[in-house]
Every structure is written in structure tokens, then in C-alpha cells.
Write a structure and sequence with these properties.
Layout: E1 14-15, H1 20-35, H2 40-57, E2 79-85, E3 91-98, E4 107-108, E5 116-118, E6 122-129, E7 141-149, E8 153-155, E9 157-158, E10 164-169, E11 175-182, E12 213-214, H3 234-254, E13 264-268, E14 276-278, E15 294-296, E16 302-304, H4 311-323, E17 329-333, H5 336-342, E18 362-365, H6 375-385, E19 390-393, E20 397-402, H7 405-428, H8 436-446, H9 449-466
Parallel strand pairs: 18-19
Antiparallel strand pairs: 1-2, 2-3, 3-11, 4-10, 5-8, 6-7, 6-10, 9-12, 13-14, 13-17, 14-15, 15-16, 17-20, 19-20
Helix pairs in contact: 1-2, 3-7, 3-9, 4-6, 5-7, 7-9
Length: 472
């Protein structure tokens, strides 16, 4: 019989990559799993839309976890990257990258549930075990089925217990496969051999509580959205960011977000990444053109442009850009409803579909000490922001960030309106909040980086048509 050894628990949950999307997904998995413990088919059915949205975004997955691995113990350059594991080892999330013409070792699926993202053509060989299991560390296998899959996109698979299989990559591009698995009985790894003499991995343990969910294209998969442009020349990318930045200022002016000299939006330079472009100090938002923007270095010195820079802009934004390398842009203004809401010292509630974009993805800086003029205060603010897309600055206003200028600007506009909506709702009566699980789902549907970017596009088109001089 196979030698099963109970694995020791870990000191704490292990996170191998940090992102709000992954953290939110893990929390959802835990909640749904706990509420459907008696019906695992229902667990997987309820999890699938969350998993699809996570996989559809993909911005949250660092590039290193989507690469092949020449030193992989699985052989063939197959990259298997652990992303998260609970301290009791009962839940893990990992990515698997299979290079072209590679085959995974013979393995059983150490899970009662497994959902994956598959790209490109693949062949799967499924085996059944034909011995009695008495030979320790070995198994005699017989091929029962060979499956071919030619569709690209998100898919899932569902098999009976004790499925043993290999995957072969047929497509000329690497195949990315993201997976979650739950282990019902924790066992140490063992070695398996097959009558086909295939390479065998010792990464997987044979587990009698194995179930893989059926690979099937879902009719309700999200439609593909346009994506932010990719530039070959840094000069083109710089101009694009500056045009978006000038447009964002014009929109902020049109929407009444200006308050004298207060407020600033910054865009990281694509070449000198410790520099950022910002509005000239004292210029009305509604008058800013591309040529008016100034470039500031990490010391706060203007290296391109003729105007001065708001000291608070540098104190805040320099620290956000330093603490968050993923952030391309940050937006802050003293808009009316953001200011009003900030005085309450509270996070927003999930009252509307739009406000759910910020559910579990905005923070509170609960310590107003006056105008932010020192970078040390900016550091505290950046720490409070964490990995979130937005922050409420108590008795001050609001601030948003994004992976594009478009995203940061759109989140600011949306957050301002969400503050307005909640203030109006609470003034009128007792609003009904959206349930936690539904709010989490909605956040994945409307709160992704691409959702923020895409939401800005019609606003950009509008302002450029109405005020084309902003591009000068």
C-alpha cells in the first residue's frame, strides 16, 4: 500500500505573491467552501464565476509565475509555481506553465476540486490503476482515454474520483494553467511508476478523495474587452500618458473637482521610472494642456517644464510611486463629496454596483495632521493605502491609483460619485447594503484594472472632442 504520511501544519498562511485580487479570491473560496461543505458540486458551481473573473484579469499574476522553468522537477521545462497555501495545507493555489511539445509527469489530481485556465491545443491521456496497490511507491496503469482540446480560453474539467493523467502541449505557444486544489486527507508525496514508462513526478500524492471538475466552455464567459495599448517606443508611451493626464485634468475641471490650487494627478515616466509628470502649480485644471505638464525627479526637482510643483503633490505622490511600483498614476483632488465623506472617517459601504468596485479595495487614513508637506507623512499615507486602489483621507478628501492614467482617473471619478450616492442615500433614509458574497463577486466584475481603464475611454473621447486644445 502507498505510504501515507500526515504533513505538518505551517506556522501561518503562505503568500508567494501579493495582490488584492488574489486575497479577495482566497477569502471567497474559504467562505463558499465553508457554506457548502455538504455539497462539493455546489461549491465548485458557485466558485466558477469568481475563478473565471480572476483568470480573465491576469494583471495580478506576476510574470515570473507565468514562465517555464528549465530546472523544474517535473521535467520538460514545465513551470509549477505556488501562489498561496493555507497553514493547514488544505487549500493551495498554483500556476502551471507547460511549454510546447512537453508532457506532464503521470499524476493524480491531488484535489476534490480543480479549475484551470487553458490556452491552446492540448492532449490529455487518462489512465486507470490496474494493480491492487500493495507495491509501495509504484502503480500499474492502463490507458482508458485520450482527449484532445483545441479551444482557447477559460475551461474546467470534471472527472470521477482517482483520475490519473498526463497533459501534452500541442500549441506552439506555452500553455498557462492556473489551478486551485483542496486536500481532504493530507498525505506526503510518493513516487508512482507506469507501465508506459513515462517520467513520473514525486510532487503529487495519490489521494483517494480526488475529483477534477469537467473542462467545458461556459456560455456565460465574459466577453473580451479592449486592452490598454502596448508601445514599442518609449517616446510614444510617454506622449500617450501625457495626453491622458491632460485629459484627466480637463475632466476634473469640468466635473468641478478643482479647489483653488489644491489637487494633483501624476503619471510615472515610462523611461525614467522614478520621475513623474504632474500639473503645474497654480494652473486651473480646465486649462491644462500636454505642453503644460512638468516632470519631477525623486528629489522633487523640476527637470522638464517651467512651472513650480505643489509641495504636497510631491510629498504624497512621490511616496506612493516609490511604495507601489505597479502604480503608473495617482489622482487626488479636493472634490465636494469626497471631502464630505472623508469627514465621517468611514469606508464606503457596498450600496450600489458602482461602489462595489471599491469593496475590500479601499483604505482609510485615519489621522489628519494638516497639509501634507513632508515625505514622512506621505510614507504613512502610502502604507495605509497598501495594495488597494483607493483611500479615504479623513478630514481631507480621497485618492486613487491605477496601472494606467486612465484607470486612476476613472476610479477617482467613480469614487467621488460613490461618496455622493452614499451621502444622499443616508440622508434620505436607511440604505440597504449589498450582501458580502455578492459585493465580492461584483467587485471582480467591475473593479479590475481593465474595467477602470475601459471606463475612462468614453470620457477621454468626449473631452478630446469638446476641448481638442488639451493635446497641444
Amino acid at each position: 500500500m502507498t505510504n501515507h504520511t500526515i504533513l505538518e501544519p505551517l506556522p501561518e498562511d503562505q503568500w508567494f505573491t501579493l495582490s488584492q485580487e488574489l486575497r479577495s479570491f482566497v477569502a471567497t473560496v474559504r467562505e463558499i467552501s465553508a457554506n457548502t461543505v455538504d455539497d462539493r458540486t455546489q461549491t465548485l458551481a458557485r466558485l466558477e464565476p469568481y475563478f473565471q473573473e480572476l483568470l480573465a484579469q491576469q494583471e495580478w499574476l506576476p510574470q515570473k509565475f507565468a514562465q517555464v522553468n528549465p530546472e523544474s522537477r517535473m521535467g520538460g521545462g514545465i513551470g509549477q509555481w505556488l501562489l498561496f497555501r493555507t497553514k493547514d495545507r488544505s487549500l493551495s493555489i498554483f500556476s502551471l506553465v507547460i511549454p510546447p511539445d512537453s508532457t506532464t509527469p503521470v499524476h493524480d489530481h491531488l484535489a476534490w476540486g480543480l479549475i484551470g485556465l487553458y490556452k491552446g491545443n492540448q492532449e490529455e491521456t487518462v489512465y486507470r490503476r490496474v494493480d491492487n496497490g500493495d507495491a509501495q511507491g509504484h502503480a500499474q496503469l492502463q490507458i482508458t482515454e485520450v482527449r484532445y482540446r483545441f479551444k482557447q480560453g477559460i475551461s474546467t474539467a470534471c472527472y470521477p474520483q482517482m483520475v490519473i493523467s498526463t497533459l501534452s502541449k500541442l500549441h506552439p505557444r506555452a500553455h498557462l494553467y492556473l489551478s486551485i486544489f483542496w486536500v481532504m486527507i493530507l498525505v506526503a508525496s510518493c513516487v508512482t511508476s507506469s507501465s508506459q514508462n513515462l517520467t513520473v513526478s514525486n510532487h503529487f500524492a495519490l489521494d483517494i478523495l480526488t475529483l477534477l471538475v469537467k473542462r467545458k466552455r461556459k456560455k456565460n464567459m465574459p466577453y473580451p474587452r479592449p486592452q490598454p495599448p502596448v508601445f514599442e517606443r518609449v517616446e510614444d508611451e510617454r506622449l500617450h500618458r501625457k495626453q491622458r493626464l491632460a485629459a484627466a485634468f480637463r475632466l476634473f475641471g469640468k466635473f468641478g473637482f478643482s479647489e483653488g490650487i489644491a489637487g494633483h494627478i501624476t503619471a510615472r515616466d515610462p523611461e525614467f521610472t522614478d520621475h513623474f509628470w504632474v500639473n503645474p502649480f497654480g494652473t486651473y485644471f480646465g486649462h491644462i494642456r500636454v505642453s503644460d505638464l512638468v516632470l519631477v525627479n525623486r528629489e522633487g526637482e523640476v527637470v522638464k517644464g517651467d512651472a513650480e510643483v505643489n509641495r504636497a503633490a510631491f510629498a504624497i505622490h512621490s511616496q506612493i510611486h516609490e511604495a507601489r511600483p505597479d502604480v503608473i498614476a495617482a489622482a487626488h483632488a479636493h472634490s465636494l463629496y469626497g471631502k464630505a465623506w472623508s469627514s465621517l472617517g468611514r469606508l464606503l459601504d457596498p450600496l450600489t454596483q458602482d461602489s462595489c468596485a471599491f469593496y475590500e479595495d479601499h483604505a482609510l487614513f485615519d489621522d489628519f495632521t494638516g497639509v501634507v508637506l513632508e515625505t514622512s507623512e506621505g510614507q504613512r499615507l502610502a502604507q495605509a493605502l497598501g495594495s488597494n486602489k483607493a483611500i479615504i483621507l479623513r478630514n481631507h478628501s480621497i485618492l486613487t491609483v491605477g496601472h494606467t492614467v486612465d484607470e486612476a482617473a476613472f476610479w477617482y471619478i467613480s469614487l467621488e460619485r460613490s461618496c455622493q450616492a452614499q451621502l444622499l442615500a443616508e440622508a434620505a433614509g436607511r440604505p440597504t447594503t449589498i450582501k458580502h458574497e455578492t459585493a465580492r463577486l461584483t467587485q471582480t466584475q467591475v473593479g479590475s484594472h481593465t474595467s477602470g481603464w475601459f471606463g475612462f475611454q468614453p470620457l477621454y473621447d468626449r473631452i478630446v472632442r469638446e476641448e481638442p486644445d488639451l493635446l497641444n
